[in-house]
Write a structure and sequence with these properties.
heterodimer; A: alpha+beta; 3-stranded antiparallel sheet; two-stranded antiparallel ribbon; 2 helices; 5 strands; about 20% helix; about 25% strand; B: alpha/beta; 4-stranded parallel sheet; 15 helices; disordered N terminus
């Protein structure tokens, strides 16, 4: 993450997400997967008790993030303001 | 727990100052006549200024658990309802009194709805007038709604209030679940992009308060902010209801001032500190604390009050947030880890099973806590608790996973000695109980 803060955030609707994992494949720097396959902010991406539902994105990640939003089979993702 | 036998308003405040009951001044199961005799009629305007000004000056915080400023929510709805050049018209605000009280250890809302339904109604009506609200709802389980229905039938000014029967689940009282229930009939928390105050029920500005908060709003509207602040402390003004359960002579609801000493409150409930190992404050989403020297407060007390780290539920010092007002007593000789494991197991079962990290993470946590409680754990069990806690934290549509993690963390801190004994295959509480018996 650059010093200027995130360019945007990837909002995950947990009530819809089924852990298919496409987003983690498209955004390998930003997301890993947890024990059960659900997207998890990569280590260091969220400091302290930060908001794990709105994952900060760099400018370079915006395009793949938009792909992830479009391709998510459950429409569980949204790009929100930083 | 029966609402009508459990009521026992305190005559004297736990902190020593007089705290004659504010919320139960009308007596048990107060009808409209008793209500008006105790409180008088509602003024057309709040005594000092507008209701918004009085609420801000009163410092009233939500009594449902989160303890958020009542005025800030009110102001956010007030702002959203005003036509904005850039925003679409949002429609008249919706007001909801939430008495679902899914927390199994809490019965203060049931008691309030039984004794003082007219105060809750007055609070809604005062805010409706100030905000130009269109719809009002009182949301609670079927049994709790009976006295409310009787109260509504007694008066002609409350026809615009509708009753909503809440399902009996732990998460049914989460604010977004309440709005979801109104819209879809399913009381499940939902994904929120913004705040309910901006876009809640059908996109309208929506103000959801706990029923007790609404009752205090009615009193602030009647008597003003200065009157409200005459009880409690500068950091935690006013009074609140607490439900005292667990190893107690009888389960009671008490009204106590903000900043009350936990030991004094327990004494009012007939519980001596020497019989208490720990107290769960705030409920299943709350914190275990050792009660000695502990103060119940929504904010760090200043001045003569004991100083403590400014973190919620710090186990050994100072002050603890009252949350939804639950005080659950763990008697000496009972094992806190075992009690916590049972609670986590219950909470895992109460997951709405919508959000993966909660649906899978809470049962995993419950399993680890069960092993820790059984004393059959390996030394790395605590590290596994920490890892799973980090995995579920903040990853849900509501705070159910976060509240569960808070409970577990406070247990590991408060019962740190017990954890060491359990990892060695023995139970400290059992050893103490044996020692006391000999």
């Amino acid at each position: 993450m650059n010093a200027g803060g995130p360019a945007a955030r990837l909002h995950i609707d947990w009530t819809v997400c089924d852990g298919r994992g496409l987003c983690a494949e498209l955004l390998p720097e930003a997301l890993t997967r947890d024990d059960w396959g659900y997207p998890l902010a990569a280590p260091g991406r969220i400091r302290g008790s930060g908001d794990a539902t709105n994952v900060p994105l760099t400018g370079a990640e915006l395009v793949p993030a938009m792909d992830a939003v479009k391709l998510c089979p459950l429409l569980a993702l949204r790009i929100t303001r930083p | 727990m029966s609402a009508d036998t459990a009521v026992e308003p305190v005559e004297r405040g736990a902190a020593g100052q007089s705290a004659a009951s504010r919320l139960f001044a009308g007596g048990a199961n107060a009808g409209h006549a008793a209500h008006l005799a105790a409180y008088g009629t509602m003024p057309r305007r709040a005594p000092g200024g507008s209701l918004a000004q009085e609420l801000e000056a009163s410092g009233l915080t939500g009594r449902g658990g989160a303890g958020f400023s009542a005025w800030r929510k009110f102001a956010a709805v007030d702002l959203s309802r005003r036509p904005n050049r850039y925003a679409r018209r949002t429609g008249a605000p919706v007001l909801i009194a939430n008495g679902a009280e899914g927390e199994p250890l809490s019965f203060k809302d049931a008691t309030l709805l039984h004794n003082a339904p007219h105060l809750v109604i007055d609070g809604l009506l005062a805010a409706a007038e100030a905000l130009g609200a269109g719809s009002m709802f009182i949301y609670a389980g079927a049994a709790r709604l009976e006295p409310v229905a009787a109260a509504l039938a007694e008066r002609a000014d409350a026809r615009s209030i509708a009753l909503l029967e809440a399902p009996d689940t732990f998460v049914a009282g989460q604010a977004s679940a309440v709005v979801n229930f109104l819209e879809t009939g399913r009381a499940l928390p939902r994904d929120l992009a913004g705040r309910l105050a901006e876009s809640g029920f059908k996109g309208r500005p929506t103000l959801v308060h706990n029923v007790e908060t609404w009752a205090h709003v009615a009193l602030v509207a009647r008597y003003g902010a200065d009157w409200f602040r005459a009880e409690g402390t500068a950091e935690d003004p006013g009074t609140r209801l607490v439900s005292v359960t667990g190893n107690v002579p009888s389960e009671v609801v008490l009204e106590v001032p903000g900043g009350a000493g936990l030991g004094d409150v327990l004494a009012s409930a007939g519980v001596g500190l020497d019989a208490v190992s720990a107290v769960l404050v705030g409920g299943y989403h709350g914190c275990w604390v050792r009660p000695s020297g502990m103060v119940l407060s929504t904010g760090a007390p200043s001045g003569g009050a004991p100083s403590g780290p400014p973190s919620p539920g710090a186990p050994s010092a100072g002050w603890v947030r009252p949350g939804a007002g639950v005080l659950h007593v763990l008697g000496v000789g009972r094992c806190g880890l075992e009690a916590t494991a049972r609670m986590v197991d219950y909470l895992a079962g109460e997951s709405a099973r919508q959000c993966g990290p909660c649906m899978f993470g809470l049962p995993a946590l419950a399993d680890v806590m069960k092993r820790l409680a059984a004393g059959s754990g390996a030394p790395d069990l605590v590290r596994e608790v920490e890892r799973l806690s980090a995995l579920v934290s903040g990853r849900g549509a509501c705070h159910h996973p976060d509240g569960t993690v808070q409970l577990i963390h406070s247990a590991l801190e408060t019962f740190a000695d017990d954890v060491r004994w359990h990892l060695a295959g023995q139970c400290l509480a059992a050893a103490r109980a044996d020692g006391a018996a000999q």
